[in-house]
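Q: Given only this backbone (247 positions), what sequence would you predict?
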């Protein structure tokens, strides 16, 4: 079984389409989504429709999904992100907003055969509704204290990083991770729709259950089309510019 782990899609239809093309080539048969399906880019309805049609093992709520669905005052959002949330609210149906607001904060996936056991969360396992960021081994260690499975996937920072706990917690960038017994893994799969690690290519991860391996994938997509749609929608131009540089 190969599970594609997709996060921070952020309404980027071109990136999502390219990623799904790649998951088919790689033989992925299941999907999980670690939140922030909407926000920032110009195709929230289309991205929601596609994600909901996937063979999903689990999906959790991101902060953009939460603020879009819950119509709350925008706390902790910069001006551009807030504008995009307000614009996104107007694009979605009541049924879609309701679906977003009912998403769980974290999920555990257990399958019997083949044996699969992992967790997903958008921000952190210790305080998932506070939307904290895990960038270092200290915040990773705090999250891992509330991680009951050997493997956990997360997003939110839009930066692929892997943290490994043995006696201590270490972390860094990764391409392929061979999962060892008696280790705990906390893995950020990067962002499909708005990468921020200075690599503009869409990012996601594949968990190959039989091989016991997680690989980070990068896919080129039609950035220019996404940019044009952002500008045509009247969304802030900075949201278009950042896609080209992956920041
Ligand atoms: Fe995000």
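A: Predicted residues:
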């Amino acid at each position: 079984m190969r599970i594609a782990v997709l996060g921070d899609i952020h309404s980027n239809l071109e990136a999502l389409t390219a990623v799904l093309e790649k998951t088919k080539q790689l033989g992925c048969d299941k999907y999980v989504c670690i939140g922030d399906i909407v926000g920032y880019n110009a195709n929230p309805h289309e991205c929601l429709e596609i994600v909901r049609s996937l063979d999903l093992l689990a999906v959790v709520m991101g902060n953009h999904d939460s603020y879009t669905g819950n119509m709350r005052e925008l706390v902790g959002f910069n001006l551009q992100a807030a504008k995009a949330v307000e614009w996104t609210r107007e694009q979605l149906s009541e049924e879609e907003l309701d679906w977003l607001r009912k998403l769980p904060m974290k999920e555990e996936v257990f399958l019997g055969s083949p044996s699969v056991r992992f967790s997903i969360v958008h921000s952190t396992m210790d305080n998932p509704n506070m939307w904290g960021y895990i960038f270092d081994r200290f915040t990773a260690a705090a999250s891992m204290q509330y991680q009951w499975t050997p493997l956990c996937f997360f997003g939110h920072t839009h930066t692929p990083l892997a943290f490994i706990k043995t006696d201590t917690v270490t972390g860094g960038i990764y391409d392929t991770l061979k999962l060892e017994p008696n280790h705990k893994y906390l893995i950020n799969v990067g962002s499909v729709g708005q990468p921020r690690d200075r690599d503009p290519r869409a990012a996601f991860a594949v968990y190959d259950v039989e091989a016991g391996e997680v690989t980070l994938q990068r896919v080129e997509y039609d950035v220019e089309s996404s940019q044009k749609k952002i500008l045509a929608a009247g969304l802030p131009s900075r949201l278009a510019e950042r896609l080209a540089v992956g920041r």
